[in-house]
Amino acid sequence: MGQGLLSRFIHPNPAIRRELVDLLYTSLPQVMSINAAAITGSVTLAVLTRDPGYIAIACAIIVNAIGRVVSLLRYKQHASRLSDRDVILWEKVYAAGATAFGLALGALTFRAFQLNDAPGAWIAFGLSMSYCVGMVSRAAIRPWVVLTATAVLFAPTLVAGLMRPELPYQLGAAMLVLFWFSIREASRHLSTAFIERLESKHALARQANHDFLTGLPNRAAFLAALEGSVGSIAIIAIDLDGFKPVNDRHGHHTGDDLLRQVAGRLAICAGPDGMAARFGGDEFMLLKPVAGGAQARDEALALARDAVRSLSMPFLLSDIPVIIGASAGLLVNDRSLDEAAVDELLRQVDGALYAAKRAGGGCCTWADTADHAFQQTG
To answer: Which long-range contacts (CB under 8 A, 24 or more apart) does 255-258 make?
Structure first.
């Protein structure tokens, strides 16, 4: 199959990879259909011939069919709680089940050829072709799964055909190789087209929720995260001190570069469980879960101070060191939020920010959510 194809089965975008694996596990009706056909065909051959090989293969098909249905149902139960690493594991689980099922069907064809059982070969090969077409239709979004499953499906039939002395069997075996390459190209084409559509959809969604210049979440994304937050959270409004003179003196391109560097530092401050967002101009917001109780204010203040301290360090703009500063307004919220409550919190934290600016900048100011008083913290 080629190392390049196998290396691509883990899509670099976890969100797209998750959607692709979700689609694999929406194939329950198709899987049930091929399971029923394979069980019926293999059990019929086992009962009619009482051949130990047919019986063993029929048992393997039944066990595998049950396992595949169980895995499909279990994935649906746990899909919403799966980590990115779990999603990769479940893709491999699907591939393992599909490959094992293909191997069992291939073994059924091999045994029919061994016994010179023409009706059995007809049934087994028909099942194999049905399974092959079904795999291409439902799993082409993951070509490596299709190609692995169909390779082990065709391998026993290929060997059995080459072992026969008749030329038509040998030619038929060679044609299976060509058929597999046709499946390979079809799967890659379908997968590429589908992934490009997903990437376009995600790119549009990102444009709607992210700031074009800095790549940070924008105001809409921040408000959505704030409304959906649970527990105690720190909300910090940050405004740059001295940005306008830099922008006016060195030009807008330099100002844009400075904003991008600011965004990078704030994203580091927010950490993987927090959010740094750009509200516009040189105003940014931080949102991060904090511990409950008195410790919440300590953690929020530490985050605000860390952000202000980080932005006071020199920036290198076109080999020119530039020093600016930042002011911050902050509060801690532990209540559920609706749209009106979100607007009120933003008003309070903005008021705290401008109190910090009026105090000379370079400091953090608390917004007291009870009486709207401001307490300056250096």
So the answer is: 256/213, 257/317, 257/318, 258/315, 258/317, 258/322, 258/324
Kind and range of the H or E element at 332? Answer: strand 325-333
Residue 48 pLDDT: 93
How many angstroms separate the CA atoms of 163 and 331, rounded? 78
pLDDT band at 5 (very low <50, low <70, confident <90, very high): very low
In the beta sheet, which residues pair with residue 375? 366
Mean pLDDT to the nearest integer, 253-279: 93
pLDDT for 164: 86
Question: For residue 191, which of 2, 372, 16 has the smallest C-alpha distance?
Answer: 16
* DSSP notation for 176-187: HHHHHHHHHHHH
Residue found by looking up tokens 């913290």 in the block: 377
Find out whether 277 and 263 touch, Cβ atoms under 8 Å.
no
DSSP structural state of residue 313: S
